[in-house]
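Re: export button greyed out
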Amino acid sequence: MKNLIKHTWLLLILFSCNSLELNEEAFDFISPDNFYKTEKDADASCIGLYSAIDRLEIYHVLNGLGAVGLTRNSNYSYQNAGDINERDDLMRRVWQFLFESVRKANTTIYYLEQSAISEEVKNRYIAEAKAIRAFSYFRLVRLWGDIPMRLSPLVETDDFPLTPLKDVYQQIVTDLEWAIPSLWNRGEKPDGRMNKSTGQILLADVYLTMASSARSYNSATSARSLKPYHDAFGDQIQEFYGKAKTLSAEVISGPYSLLPDWMNMWGKGPAFDNRYNNEFIWASQTASGLYGHGFADHYSPIYSEYTPASRTLFTGVTYEHVVSFDTLDLRYTEGLIWEYNDVNISEARGQYVIQRWRRHVDDESYPESTKGSVIIKRTSDTLIYENKYWEMCTKKFFDMTYTIASPAGPAGVMPYYRMAEAYLIYAEAENELNGMTQAAVDKVNAVRGRVNVGLYSAGQFSKEEFRDHILDEWLWEFTLEGKDYFDLVRMGQLEERCYGVQVDRFGKDGVENPRPRDADDYWLPYPILEKGLNTFLAGKDRMSYQ
Amino acid sequence: MTKLYYCKLLVLAFSMLLPALGKAQQQTVTGTVVSDETGEPLPGVSVTLKGDTRGTSTNADGNYSILVSSRNAILVFELLGFTPQGVNISGRSIINVTLMPDVRQLEEVVAIGYGTVRKSDLTGAVSSLKMEDIEGIPLNSIEQGIQGRIAGVQVTQSSAAPDGGISMIIRGSNSLVGGTEPLYVIDGIPISGGNEQIWGPDDGGGPAGEGQELSQAPNFLSFLNPDDIESIEVLKDASATAIYGSRASNGVVLITTKQGTVKPTISFNVTTEMVQPFRRWDLLSAEEYAEYRRLNTIVGEYMNGSTYEDIIESGLPHSGTYSASDGSYTPSPEDYAAGRAASTDWQDVIFRNALTQRYSLSLSGTANKLRYYIGGGYNNLQGPVINSSFDRYSLSSKLSGNAGTNVTFTNSLNAVRTVGKRVQADIAVSGANSGIMTKAYRSNPLTQIGQIWFEEIEGDLVGSDDPYTLATAFDDVNTTSQIMNNLQLDWEVIKNLHVKVSGAVRYTARQRDMYFPLSTQRGQLRGNGAAFYGNTESLYLINENLLTYRFRKEKHLLDVLGGFTMERTTRRSAAARTSNFLNDFTRYYNLGAGTDFTKPGTGFGQIDLTSFLSRLNYNYDNRYLLTASLRADGSSKFGKYNKWGYFPSAAFAWRVSNESFMSDIKSISDLKLRLSYGVTGNQGLSSYQSLPQLMPESYPFEDAVSIGYQNAIIENPNLRWERTTQYNVGLDIALFNGRIALTGEYYLKRTADLLQVVSLAPSTGYLKQVQNLGSLENKGMELEVNAKVLTGKLKWDVGAVWFKNDVEVLDLGGMDEYPGAWTVSWDWRPFPIKVGRPLGDIYGYRVDKVMKTQEDIANAANDLPTKNIGEFDFVKDEEGNMKLFRLGNTNPRFSLGFNSTFSYKAFELSFHLAGSIGQDIFNMQDRFLLYGDGAQTTRDYYNRFWIPEVKDASGNVVIPDNGGDLHMIAATGGRTSLSNLNAPIDLMIQDGSYVKLRNLQLAYTLPKKSTPAWMRRLRLYASVTNLFSFDNYSGLDPEASVYGQDPTRRGVAYGEYPMSRTFTFRADFRF
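Workaround output, generated via the alternate export path:
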């Protein structure tokens, strides 16, 4: 009995020693407390930044807004930015994931700065994170102008004031200039990671955008909404063109190069793989059968055996863009493909096979009227199929190695920056600084020379005329690469060059007449979700440019 | 007793004493100990000499014999449950003793948290159910016994499957996402949570951040064998529950298992049940269906512009003709009617009359001061749908006794293994993964078992298995093994001061095995057969240390309780999946036989809870009763700034009937008024929700995936419990010497700091955060009446409960409205949560009419998704758009229960009614039945589909207009409009009021004289469960609720498992 009592008290004492702190200990997940300790952690933290960048939504919006792209889903086809209202969910998602990318970069920067990892090592990862933050803010500022620019991952409240466009650009420039010396040299980290050349071409693009946008401001046209650029950088246009030119020259002389054969970039035949080539300075990444994303799914011919059956969105090009090409241009004859269905259905143990055909443009003229939709429908004993389906699309992301059994989707990738862009940045800056010089013409000719079209000679056009030709080159070269909308805005040519989009692919044929653009159309509205929660944005529709 | 008897006794005593006088003071005392209550002899009574440890105990006949050395020694007779008695020998050698049951047992004692109290001393709202009162009623799970018997407790059987989920709500829903199920305390071990299952490959779905469970989890109390339970107490108001602090907001249910009887007893019972589906959908027969398809084609093509002659020419389905090309015959409706062509009634195929068996055996008694109960049970429950079953093997024991002077112990042990074979019935998805019941009402009756066929889902053809294959070919086995043990020690340090220390452990291992065979479409879609294995294991430890002291002086009685407790739960999980099997032989037994592996997942988590608790009960003269309690809970789940929560309560009761001025009123035997107030919490959070978390964010470089880590979950250091403040007024009246007892309660509950998943401004870079935001209110009334109507030879007892609860959302943290959770598809949010409204409002459109003319189309609502002849037009708002109406609410206006027991001699006849009135059902399956696109439908809808007039070339009416009030009977008539709506329509909302005759039972006890000597009692039962249901619902079970325990969307029916009617025969043997 005495023993029992003794043991009882022992039990009590034992349990009393149990701590009352009640702090939770993480077991099956990692918390910031037990991370950011080693270079491996820093590396993993940076790797974690990339999946927030290559989201499709921004391409849907940009193609919906731009001159050449169009999407089959009418929800994502905008006449122009003015058609996007504050409730547009796709636009909200773009806003959301760009800020998600910023927040992740902020987290990495914040914790690495506090980390005990040596300065020399951690600065290189901080540089990578800062360059990615700059890239996301560059996308945000071009679409929305003034934005809530958070630079810390600590969130105390939903409220955060708008940062003026000028300050956002200032931050982007500061981050990139700080980062470039520390960024990876090509080969130190795998391609696809932010490296020195990427930082340089990104900064060149930033300078070019600031300079051209400020230059294009014209109070008489729709380009009047570029006024914030004019007010902020109007006195630095020459300086910025100079920096853009210097930086693009550094990229051109760097480790990447322009491919002599344009088709090599996108490939031909069944072994095609657009992922690895020397022209892609920075591109979204895939791993065969392990990790894919939707570029190939959404940009390749619909109903091909190389696209997953689950595809619901499709992006093609406008008729006007197709006919703007030189008929010999490889980017037209080889780069574009039209596709139609020849429904050939056999019923064998319930299997339905639909034959799909693709043809290059020169096989047959672009069909203008035979459009329609295919409806496959099974009633009790028969299968009804109607009409045929025609689409014009790009072959750039068309992964011919893809099979339906591959779980991760096709492997075609989207380049964020490739060498041709450095050439055109150089040419555009040089033309603005010194007119149609030999240096400018050489850069444009390098791009044209590989696609079977005529070359320019120095002084052939005035600066203004050549500017237009350079814009043409931007649109042809980067068809469906998510560049055209930004190019048109920067050049102040959105209203003049936008062909309009075909709104309803199922119901109507032909092309809607382009609607005159309002100046508002250069800036997207703030999403309703943000305005409802962030009191600083309450009542604000979009960036004020008055 | 007569004088003569006394004399004889005296003579006998002296004659026995005489020889002893000569010896050295040694003598034997013998006698018999009997119970005062029954007069039966008491075995196992300890007989000791005071001041001496030696002793003996009575044998099975209550006799004892003890050697004593002093004529004036005192014999002490002790038995648990009886008042100890000391008897001075005074020279006697035969001492017969009558033991009185413990005073506290004379009056009904009810369990309250951390103790017991006389029912008359209760200050809070506590309802009690003795299991012997519902003996013989077949219960799959104990909640079924509570339904309709305790006021304020809404028990809903959300799935009628053998181990189907049951939801129990005490006094309304206090939470949106934090859970609304009560805290269960089983023999002192608290168990919180709700129904849960290991998620299989298709059990979750939804947009990012809003994933939800798509199939129903099995009932989480199904591990308890109802035969092992002695009593259930439901603690309702805050005075009763606050002692359980941060887990008590939803009420507390105390479950006490059986303990040893005084007399050795072997009890055995055997139950056999015949289970059948209570009702079916009234679907079209094969003949009607073929006719329907024919009409569907004619009308569809005619309205598309074909002439009647062309339609006939091109051939109708089910025409009864031979094909010109291959000579095959297409059967006509008449062929189907005559049975000349094969057809399938899919309900016939999957329903059955099943046989269920239950066995329980227990051994109970007292030996050498040790009271014991050991019970074992085996239940084999079969559902009315083929291949659904539930097996339970249980063992329960309770031992209690003395561990020396002033120390007693109780050890409760419960071990159980359950195996549930589930058919995937109520799965809230359509298409390839839809449940068997959904398939049963959608499947084409003209197809046969084993035909691989295609089902059209939202315009796509999807490979699909027939209901029979779905029910029989797939494996989905849920196995649970659990062991619980609780050892409690009670040491009376000095008189009335007790130290109580207990330690308990609960170990649960759950396992889920699934296999999708190669031979099925579903198995093919998953890649040539697929297997899944999931496992969770949790270990729960609790230590309680309590100090109680009772102080009595004159009219003052004070009970004090203080203590602290510590709990820890650790939990780990693992899941693995493979696919691409060579054949179906190894199934889920060997996942390695598949060749395609999905990344395995494991997890681990830990929760700590430390609490301090105290309570004071003060009783003045049995007239004024006061209770006050305070609990402090520190939980690891709370944010770091809010680790500790404090939960006070106070209650006052006035026993008016004990006042002197009441002594003249003889008709009122008891009258008590109760008032209470208290604060309780709900910590329905999973662990680690307040912490920031990094998650893997992999990304491929150079054709290989690299693992990255990024912050994915934002921290919330302020996260804490939901806080409910409750006020209660209660009145207890007993009339005519207790023949009528009546309890009435009114309560008001306000819950603040509601846990909610709140959207963050997207510019923060985060989507959502769990926050404490908003408040809601529940108020209601409860009434319980029990009456002994007849007490003579024919006894008649009745009991009735009636209760209502109203819930209202008071605040949503600044927002007026939340979209609420989704159903059907991601855009369907028919249960928006609005400030000032109750939960459970269903919003949708009202059908105005069917558009039968071009004029109707011109006048249709502007935003009608499609405008074709034969489609619905909906009631419009001022701007001419479809108007969103509040179509109903899923909360009952009130609930009721009634039970009645007649007993006459050996017979006992009882019945029990339970029901809920005024709630609506969102009948999601009617979305499909209403399509009218040629898929199976109900006879009612079929007769209401509009058939427009069809004329032949010469203008004769071939088919007359039937004036139907539903959309046109043509190919896609209904579906085009319905599938483009993102809200329900009024046709899908039905009155869900029901009253079920839950049970009708006849019991017969074999009279003593016909009972063999070796048997103590034989009792036979025959009963019917769910004999009638009075309701207007068109589906299979008005209680069905496919989202189970989610308070924001109850009452959603979607292919529910059919309610069963059960015929039961049971025999209870007692030896």
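DSSP finds 15 helices and 62 strands in chain B. The button fix ships in the next patch.
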